[in-house]
Write a structure and sequence with these properties.
Elements (H helix, E strand, L loop, with lengths): L1 H22 L3 H9 L11 H6 L7 H12 L12 H24 L40 H4 L3 H6 L4 H25 L4 H34 L16
Length: about 240
C-alpha cells in the first residue's frame, strides 16, 4: 500500500510538471491552428462536434452522478461489491471534481480560441495562469468543463482498485477516453485549447486521489478501533474490617 501511495504521488507530480512544460511550449496555439483560420473554425457548428458530442450529452453526467448518489444506499451491479464508504467516495468524488472544474471556470479570465484575433475574434492570447489579466474576450474558458463530463468519473479507478483491480482499470480507460473525446470535440470547434483538456484531467485525477487517501485513512482508523481489545476491568478490592 505504501508503494502504491508513492507511485500515485510520483505520477501526479510528474504530470503536473509536464503540463507546465506544455503551457510554456506554445503548442496550444499551434494545435488550434490545425482547425481554425482567420475566418474562424469551420467545424464549430458541425452536427457531430456541436450537437452529438456537446449539446445532446450535457445532462448525462448529472444523470450518472444522481445514479451514483442513489447507489450509495441502493447499489446495483458491480457497485454491490463496494462497501458503503467506497460507494460514497465514488459519488462525492465525481461531484466534487465537476464542481472544482466549474468553479475555476467562473473565475478564469482566459478566453477560448474562437475569441482570438487570429481566428476572427477580438481577444489577444493570454496564458490561463495570468490571473486577473483580461485578454479582451469573454473569458471563462479555462479549464475544459465539457471534458470533465468524462474525467470526473475517474474516481471509479480509485474505489475499485481496492477490491476489483480489473474493473478499476476499465473505469480508468472509460473515463479517460470519454474525457479525451469530449475535449477533442471542443478543440475542433475552437472552444478550448489542448491544455484546457489536459488540466481538467489533472484536476479530476488529483481530486480523486486526495479523496481516496482521506477515505482509506478513515477506514483504516475505524478498523484499528474495532480490532483493539476491550479494556479489562479489574475487580474491586474486597473491604477488610478494621480492627
Amino acid at each position: 500500500m505504501q508503494r502504491s501511495k508513492h507511485r500515485l504521488f510520483f505520477w501526479t507530480t510528474l504530470s503536473f510538471f509536464l503540463l507546465l512544460v506544455w503551457d510554456f511550449s506554445g503548442l496550444d496555439l499551434w494545435m488550434a491552428g490545425w482547425f481554425g483560420s482567420a475566418s474562424g473554425f469551420p467545424l464549430e457548428s458541425h452536427w457531430l462536434w456541436r450537437d452529438l458530442l456537446h449539446d445532446d450529452i450535457r445532462l448525462w453526467p448529472w444523470v450518472l452522478e444522481l445514479g451514483l448518489l442513489v447507489a450509495i444506499f441502493w447499489p446495483l451491479g458491480t457497485l454491490k461489491k463496494l462497501p458503503m464508504a467506497r460507494r460514497a467516495q465514488l459519488a462525492l468524488t465525481t461531484l466534487v471534481a465537476l464542481l472544482v472544474v466549474s468553479t475555476i471556470k467562473i473565475y478564469s479570465r482566459s478566453s477560448c480560441p474562437w475569441d482570438l484575433q487570429q481566428f476572427g475574434g477580438v481577444a489577444t492570447y493570454v496564458s490561463h495562469w495570468s490571473w486577473g489579466v483580461r485578454d479582451g474576450g469573454t473569458g471563462g474558458c479555462f479549464p475544459a468543463g465539457h471534458a470533465s463530463a468524462g474525467f470526473a468519473f475517474i474516481g471509479g479507478f480509485f474505489v475499485f482498485r481496492h477490491v476489483l483491480p480489473k474493473t478499476a482499470w476499465r473505469w480508468f480507460a472509460g473515463a479517460m477516453l470519454v474525457g479525451a473525446l469530449f475535449g477533442l470535440a471542443q478543440q475542433i470547434r475552437g472552444a478550448h485549447y489542448m491544455s484546457h483538456t489536459l488540466w481538467t484531467a489533472w484536476f479530476c485525477w488529483t481530486v480523486a486521489a486526495a479523496a481516496d487517501a482521506a477515505v482509506s485513512q478513515l477506514i483504516a482508523r475505524n478498523r484499528s478501533r474495532a480490532a483493539a481489545p476491550a479494556p479489562v476491568l479489574s475487580a474491586p478490592m474486597p473491604l477488610t474490617p478494621t480492627e
